[in-house]
Every structure is written in structure tokens, then in C-alpha cells.
Write a structure and sequence with these properties.
The complex is a heterodimer.
Chain A lengths: L3 H16 L1 H33 L4 H6 L7 E3 L1 E4 L2 E10 L2 E10 L4 E6 L2 E9 L4 E2 L1 E3 L5 H8 L2 H32 L5 H11 L5 H13 L7 H4 L7 H12 L4 H8 L4 H12 L1 H17 L2 H6 L8 H11 L4 H21 L1 H5 L10
Antiparallel strand pairs in A: 1-8, 2-3, 3-4, 3-7, 4-5, 5-6
Helix pairs in contact in A: 1-2, 4-15, 5-9, 5-12, 5-14, 10-11, 14-15
Chain B lengths: L9 H34 L2 E2 L7 E2 L3 H9 L1 H32 L6 H13 L3 H11 L6 H7 L14 H11 L2 H12 L3 H9 L4 H29 L3 H7 L12 H11 L3 H29 L3 H7 L1
Antiparallel strand pairs in B: 1-2
Helix pairs in contact in B: 1-13, 3-7, 3-8, 3-10, 3-12, 4-8, 5-11, 8-10, 10-13, 12-13
Classes of the chains: A alpha+beta, B mainly alpha.
Chain lengths: 358, 307
């Protein structure tokens, strides 16, 4: 029992807590955490559905798409036939019995599998069906071998890797050029570069296709790979913003020691720009891995397809096999997820976004 | 540094290096941007189908597009409908989540990871996932809605619901915009909050008078980028509808219709016309947002100028 005094003490300290700055901050923290937790349900549920669906078979999926853990009816052998087992309540006692025959009015004949002579007629809905966990790991090999996903993954990795090398090489040079030199027209060109970020890709799409078609590059990886070696506005911008924050003193010292600009880039700038380089490399991987539009337009033969195209076509062919589609989709999203967790800091602490504001 | 080549001043040498370094971009810009842009402008006045050389038709393509092609207007309408639903919703949601993620709470990095994750994996796999979630037979949404007494529509097969369903898919992946807002929020100087607190401003006043004005540049950036992105919207609707823009063309986005003209009907000239009309629309909308920005975007320089 609380005395009036201690009641008063508690209520006044709560009141003080609520009105004080400390208390306000605590309440904000509690509400924030609660809202974030509630919202995260919407983020996580689709992932759970994907994983669980990829481990079910068609019947499990049809009977209960909401079940997170794939289960199946527990079966028992009665007179040479598999029959579903139920937990039957008899005189307050629970007993496992198999349902061998459905009768009208929702009733059924139940049999004790250990003693088939014992038969009971009971309403089915009052008995509890027994279920066992039944996980279909075989969906993964089945999904991945039904179309040549190994080939698609190799193609995707090859394109991603080559374009990443090209992008890092060209964008480092260009970002260095825009951040460390003065020349007539350079500022204007930088603005032009920035404005290409807003340029809808469609205005150059068709002539590029026509051009690649004429030189026989359509249905090869070249239209996807070669442009990467000519830099792009996003990555140049991010790298340039980062290089601008590197102090000039070391450049100067190296120049006095006789280093030329290429050596300064190689030995001074690039080592210091590592965080930004890692960041643009990761963003590039995610972009190239998920890219759909360009492979769709340029890669026609099946043997040249990337994972994105292969997966879309797989869906068109096997559309009723939701479990297999989910297994293959999961395989496609696993590399980005792994990369994301390995490089979390780059994303969550916004290493490369500092240049955007203002 | 001594100039080895006679007649080459230090400034000129620096300029040569500058152009040498930006060379890859400059060459690429001419080959892959300026050249193709001019060529597509030319194609837009021609009848061209790859098999025969382009045939000059003057402004016929433009006239046909604007006056005799109901699908052009349909695709414009679909795209704008998507933009009107998704831009404000996405902005409010991602900004709100960014504010929550900017609080000093336990495990804040875990929360940031969860909310950012969907945007990392955006692509065919995620679209196929959502196609299944919306599926009335095997999906999640129909039984969940049924359990609270709502008869769910067949989202992707219902011409009234397909665009809202696509908006919902898009909202799942708003982490990209959110992380930029978060960076913007982290850039607000803490002394502004401190002095607001000293002045007795409560949490809502601090938001209204400090946080919001200080982050308008980031909001502006995101609006412009989202607007441009919406007109390029393609992969999700292509995968979700098998490239048809169905049902009954209710999800025929502008970029999808352009793709169909170019690569399904082989109308390269007409598709180029669509590309240039798109270009004009995007530039006008962007300029409109830029124009309006002086009324609501707050730059730190102005603050200093007034003080």
C-alpha cells in the first residue's frame, strides 16, 4: 500500500519528469522507438513472406499463404493408405487418430492407427488437425536449374565488374580534373556535367541503339560496358565533392618533390579518397546488378541474358510456381543484401551524401 | 615548378592537364550525349524503322502525337496520376522517418538499416515479390484485409487499383530519399537547436522554425529528382504487367509506351518524338520547381546575409 505522501511523491516526480527537458527527451525517445518498430513491420513482413513462400510447395501455399513456417498435415498409415492425423478429444483425454472417411454433415470416421479396429464417428471441426514442419529446400535447386541461372549470374557479374572498373577509372580522372585544376571553361563544363544528371536518358536512347546496331554491337555486352569508361555525372560529382575536402598541402609537397599530376592522383588523392571510392563502387554494384532497361534492349540471345532479364522471363514461363519464383528472386536479392550489411556504414552514416545539401 | 616546354605558361599547362583529366567525360559527353541528342531530334521529324533510312516528314509525328494518339495522352495521364499519388506521400513518409531516425535512440543504426534495406534491392526480384503479395490466391494482402472484413480488389488486374498498387510498391523502397533527408537533417547545426531551446521553443516550434527551413534545400533536391525519376518509371511496371501496361492500359506509363513504340512497333522516329516531348515536359516541370524554389527553399547564405 502506498501512503498519501509517497503517492504524492511519485505523481509529482512524474509530473516533473514530463515537464522537464530530460523527461521530454525520454518521451520523445519512447515514442520514436515505438513508431519505428510499428513501421518496420511493413518493411519486414514482405521479406518474411518471400523466405517462407520460397520454402513451401504449391499445396502449402494454396492452403495457407499467411503461415510463416511451412507445415503439412501429419500422416499415418492405415491399412496401406496415408491418412491425416487429428488430435481427438475423448472423455477429456487427447488421442491421435486418423481421419479415414468423410461423412455428410461435417462428420468423419476416425481410426486409431495402432488399433485399426477402433473406429469412431465424430464431427471433424471439433478435432484438431496435426501438422508437422515440412520445409521444401529442394525449391532452390529446382528453381535455379529450370533455366540457366548460373549463366545469367556469370553474365551479370562480368558486366558489373567490367563497368565498375571502367567507371572507377574514368570517374576518378574526371573528378580529379574538376577538383584540382583551373582552366578556361572548366566551371561551365562542370555545370553541364551536373545538368546531365537531370537529362532523361530517353532522348539519347534511340540513336545509341541505332548506332550500336550499325556497328554490330547489339546482342553483345559492349553497349553496356563501353559507355562506363567515359564517366558519369553522379559518380564524378560524389568523388569530386569528396576530393574537395582533401587538404591541398600534400599535393603541394608532392609537386615540390617533382611528382606530376598523374602521380599525385595515384599516390596522394586516391588513397585518401578511399571511403568515397568504396561508396561509389558499392552504389555502382547495386545499380548494375539490378539494371533491367539496358539489358532488355541490348541483350537478345538467351545465352547473353543477365539475372534481371532471366528472372523476369522465368516469371513469365513459370508464373503459377510462386514458390520457385520466390526462391529465384531471393537468390537475386541476396548479393545486394550481403553487400549492404558488409558496408552498412557507407549507407547509414551518409558518407557520400554530404555534398548534396545546399 | 619549371616549365620544360618553352612557350607553355604554367596556367596553360594547368589547363592542358585539366582537359586531359576530364577528357574521358568530355569525349563520352560528345559521343553518348550531344551526338545522340541531336540525332534523336532529327529522327523525331522522320519516319524511321531501322530497315529503311529515315524519311523526313516534318512535324507530322508531333501533330499525330498531340492530336491523334489517345495512348499518348493516356500514358501522360497515368504517369501524372502516379506522380500525384507517390510524390507527396513519399516525401512526407521518408521525411518523417528520417526525422525519427535522427533522434538519439538506442540501436539507431539497426533501425536505419531496416528502413534503408528495401531501396538497396529494388529491381526485378522485389517487383516479383510484390506481384505475389498482391495476388489474391497466394498473396498476403487479400487474407489480411479479409481478416478485418475488407474484400480486397485484385490489385494488379483491376484498372482502378493497378497504379495505387504500384505506388505502394514504390513506397516500400523510399529508403533512398530517406537517407538523403537524414544527411540533410544531420547537417543542421546543433547550436541552432540549443539557442531555440534557450528561447523556450517547444519541439514543434523547433521543427517549424529550425529543422524545416534548414532542410528545404534537400527537400527541393529530392522533389526534382523524384519528378525526373517518375517520367523514367519503367522496370517495375514492365515486370508487374509483363510489358503490357495493363489491365486495359491502366498502367501504360509514358516510358513504357515509348519503349513499345521503339522496340515493339519499330517506330524509331515516333519514339524519338515522344522522347523529345518528354524532354520538354521534364525540363519545364523542373524549371517550374526551380522557379518556385526561391519562395520556399532556404539557403544558409541568405541567413547570413540578413543577420
Amino acid at each position: 500500500m502506498l501512503t498519501t505522501d509517497s503517492k504524492h511523491f511519485i505523481s509529482s516526480s512524474i509530473r516533473r519528469l514530463i515537464s522537464g527537458i530530460k523527461g521530454q527527451e525520454l518521451i520523445i525517445k519512447v515514442i520514436t522507438t515505438f513508431l519505428l518498430a510499428a513501421g518496420s513491420i511493413f518493411i519486414i513482413t514482405p521479406f518474411l513472406y518471400m523466405v517462407s513462400t520460397s520454402l513451401k510447395d504449391v499445396n502449402q501455399l494454396r492452403s495457407n499463404p499467411l503461415a510463416i513456417i511451412p507445415t503439412e498435415s501429419k500422416m499415418a498409415n492405415v491399412a496401406g493408405k496415408d491418412e491425416p492425423l487429428y488430435s481427438v478429444t475423448l472423455d477429456g483425454e487427447k488421442k491421435e487418430m486418423a481421419l479415414v472417411k468423410n461423412l455428410p454433415e461435417g462428420k468423419g470416421i476416425f481410426v486409431d492407427p495402432t488399433n485399426p479396429a477402433e473406429q469412431l464417428t465424430l464431427p471433424i471441426k471439433d478435432q484438431k488437425e496435426l501438422r508437422v514442419i515440412e520445409i521444401h529446400w529442394e525449391n532452390y535447386p529446382k528453381a535455379l536449374t529450370s533455366v540457366p541461372f548460373d549463366r545469367y549470374i556469370l553474365n551479370t557479374l562480368l558486366i558489373t565488374f567490367v563497368t565498375m572498373v571502367g567507371m572507377l577509372f574514368s570517374c576518378s580522372l574526371v573528378a580529379y580534373g574538376f577538383s584540382r585544376f583551373r582552366a578556361p571553361g572548366l566551371n561551365v563544363l562542370f555545370l553541364v556535367l551536373l545538368s546531365t544528371m537531370m537529362l532523361p536518358g530517353q532522348v539519347r536512347l534511340i540513336p545509341m541503339y541505332v548506332f550500336f546496331q550499325k556497328i554490330g554491337w547489339v546482342d553483345t555486352f559492349l553497349p553496356l560496358m563501353v559507355p562506363a569508361f567515359f564517366a558519369n555525372a553522379y559518380d564524378v560529382f560524389l568523388l569530386r565533392q569528396f576530393i574537395m575536402t582533401i587538404p591541398l598541402e600534400m599535393d603541394e609537397a608532392a609537386r615540390i618533390d617533382g611528382a606530376n599530376p598523374f602521380q599525385i592522383l595515384m599516390y596522394i588523392i586516391l588513397p585518401q579518397a578511399r571511403p568515397a571510392i568504396i561508396a561509389v563502387a558499392i552504389f555502382h554494384f547495386l545499380w548494375a546488378w539490378n539494371d533491367f532497361y539496358e539489358p532488355l534492349i541490348y541483350l537478345h540471345s538467351r545465352s547473353n541474358w543477365t539475372m534481371a532479364i532471366g528472372l523476369q522471363t522465368f516469371d513469365a514461363l513459370y508464373t503459377v510456381n510462386t514458390h520457385l519464383i520466390m526462391a529465384a528472386s531471393l537468390v537475386m536479392i541476396i548479393p545486394p543484401i550481403v553487400l549492404f550489411f558488409l558496408a552498412q556504414k557507407v549507407f547509414t552514416q551518409g558518407v557520400v551524401f554530404t555534398g548534396i545539401k545546399g | 615548378m619549371s616549365s620544360k616546354k618553352p612557350g607553355m605558361s604554367l596556367a596553360r599547362k594547368e589547363a592542358v592537364y585539366a582537359y586531359l583529366f576530364i577528357g574521358p567525360w568530355l569525349i563520352g559527353f560528345i559521343i553518348f550525349t550531344i551526338g545522340p541528342m541531336l540525332a534523336s531530334l532529327y529522327y523525331s521529324f522522320t519516319d524511321y524503322n531501322l530497315a529503311y533510312p529515315p524519311k523526313w516528314v516534318g512535324i507530322d509525328n508531333y501533330v499525330h502525337l498531340l492530336t491523334q494518339d489517345p495512348l499518348f495522352w493516356k500514358s501522360l495521364q497515368v504517369t501524372l496520376y502516379y506522380a500525384i499519388l507517390s510524390l507527396p506521400l513519399g516525401l512526407v513518409l521518408s521525411y518523417t522517418i528520417a526525422i525519427l531516425l535522427n533522434q538519439k535512440i538506442p540501436f539507431v543504426n539497426v533501425w536505419r538499416t531496416i528502413y534503408f534495406l528495401p531501396s538497396v534491392i529494388a529491381g526485378v526480384g522485389v517487383t516479383l515479390l510484390w506481384v505475389r503479395i498482391f495476388n489474391p490466391r497466394v498473396g498476403l494482402l487479400t487474407p489480411i484485409l479479409a481478416s478485418v472484413g475488407i474484400q480486397a480488389p485484385n490489385f494488379l488486374q483491376d484498372s482502378n487499383w493497378v497504379v495505387p498498387a504500384l505506388v505502394m510498391m514504390g513506397l516500400w523502397g523510399i529508403g533512398g530519399g530517406m537517407i538523403i533527408y537524414l544527411a540533410g537533417l544531420q547537417g543542421v547545426p546543433t547550436d541552432l537547436y540549443d539557442s531555440a531551446k534557450v528561447d523556450g521553443a517547444n519541439i514543434f516550434q523547433r521543427f517549424r522554425n529550425v529543422t524545416l527551413p534548414m532542410t528545404t534545400p534537400v527537400i527541393f533536391y529530392n522533389i526534382v529528382m523524384d519528378l525526373i525519376f517518375t517520367f523514367q518509371y519503367f522496370t517495375t511496371v514492365y515486370v508487374a504487367t509483363g510489358g503490357t501496361g495493363g489491365p486495359n492500359r491502366a498502367s501504360l506509363f509514358y516510358n513504357l509506351y515509348l519503349y513499345q513504340n521503339a522496340f515493339k512497333y519499330n517506330e524509331m522516329g515516333y519514339a524519338s518524338t515522344m522522347a523529345w516531348v518528354l524532354f520538354v515536359i521534364v525540363v519545364s516541370l523542373t524549371l517550374l520547381v526551380f522557379r518556385s524554389s526561391s519562395a520556399w527553399v532556404y539557403y544558409e547564405g541568405q541567413l547570413r546575409g540578413r543577420a
